[in-house]
Amino acid sequence: MSTPTRQRALCLLANNSEKTNLPISSPIDEPPCLCLKYNPSNYLLIIILLIVQYKYFGTPKFLKIRLNNINIEILLKKETGEKLNINEKFFSRIGFNYLIYAIATIAIQFVILNLLGIIDINLLNDFNVKTITSAICNYILPFPLLFWLMNKLDSEKLEQKSLNIKTFLLYLCITFTLMWIGNLIGLAITAAIGNVIQSDIANPVQTLINNTDIWLNLIIISIIGPIFEEIFFRKLLIDRTIKYGAKVSIIVSALLFGFMHGNVNQFFYAFLMGGFFAYVYIKTGKIIYTIILHLSVNLMGSVVSLFVIESANAIVQNTPTPFDIGIVLIYVLILLAMLLFGLIGLSKYKQANLEEYVPKINLEKPLKTIIINPGMLCFIGFCILEMIYVIIAI
């Protein structure tokens, strides 16, 4: 990290330290230290300070932010006189755009929940209200902001192609297979973390689904969510990154989509599915295909699975009806068939033809250019802090 050849890096360190009452301390041989109280509004202040510093004074050599008794050190090293090139600035801007969107969703949620608390404190414990609020805060209200921010970047229209039924069904099987693989990875990691902290880590989204009215699950989680998320993380994003080639667009879409979910349980399957949805959108140029694929996954997880779980519980309790047995049997057979065809499809995925999407701009070091820049590092750092908060809060 400290070698001269490493020009930019991000280091998030959390460690106990003595509380300081000094607002700013900057010894000659130490980095400036900004001392802030730990509350959500300071996330926005930190981002504003970083943007102002970078835009008008260049990338800081070292910025240390102290939040009460927790040190969060953001290291942005840079050789003297070096400037971000135009491509790094482009991806940095994308990172900041999605960071602003993430902060906006939290700010809107904070305002709405406080208003609901004033009206009736019991509304805050109503899962139906939470689901409706989630849709308003994550999709409907922030949409104009993200749309405006991303429209400031040049976009390209993808060539549109249609899929035949056979190919679409194969894509559907691959989608579910990636979801199961990612879900297993997420469950294994959360279980390991739970063992370390001696506490079970629940999936906040699954808790919300299990306690929300099934019609709201259908409308909000199965329909509204996929439509907005595919516009946010495929349409707006890939139309602007495709000039760097299909592989770069897929990586960016997968990373942002995974981190934006804000919890460890969902990160891995969101990352895998996000990358595949990006591939499908690039191949077809039609966002409707990825919306349907996304909708199918959410429908299965938030609506169909509830009926299956109910029937499975009846079987476990030795009170099943023929309908319960039929539902579980059909569900299992469909899942096994999809898993089989999905694995076959994935085995041929290396043969996926992306050569036709010749990059207009070739990046010498794609991953470094995409990730190691102020905007992306701030976005990823913010999402990691959010994941840690979810674990601690649970």
Task: Explain this structure.
By secondary structure, this protein is mostly helical. The chain has two domains: 1-83, no CATH class; 135-393, no CATH class. The protein contains 13 helices and four strands. It has helices spanning 41-57, 86-119, 127-140, 143-150, 165-197, 204-211, 214-241, 246-260, 264-284, 287-316, 322-347, 366-371, 374-393; strands at residues 24-25, 33-36, 63-67, 70-74. A four-stranded mixed β-sheet has the order 1-2-3-4, with no helix packed on it. A hairpin with a 2-residue loop joins strand 3 and strand 4. The longest helix has 34 residues, at 86-119. The protein is globular, with a radius of gyration of 23 Å. The chain starts with 23 loop residues before the first strand and ends with a helix. Mean pLDDT is 80; it is low at 1-39 and 55-82.
Topology pattern, helix = H, strand = E: EEHEEHHHHHHHHHHHH
Q: What proportion of the residues is helical, as a percent range?
A: 55-70%
- Our count of domains comes out at 2
Q: What is the count of β-strands?
A: 4
Name the beta content range: under 5%
Low-confidence stretches: 1-39, 55-82
In short:
By secondary structure, this protein is mainly alpha-helical.
Can you lay out the helices and strands and say which pair or pack?
Layout: E1 24-25, E2 33-36, H1 41-57, E3 63-67, E4 70-74, H2 86-119, H3 127-140, H4 143-150, H5 165-197, H6 204-211, H7 214-241, H8 246-260, H9 264-284, H10 287-316, H11 322-347, H12 366-371, H13 374-393
Parallel strand pairs: 2-3
Antiparallel strand pairs: 1-2, 3-4
Helix pairs in contact: 2-3, 2-4, 2-13, 3-7, 4-7, 5-9, 5-10, 5-11, 7-8, 7-9, 7-10, 8-9, 9-10, 10-11
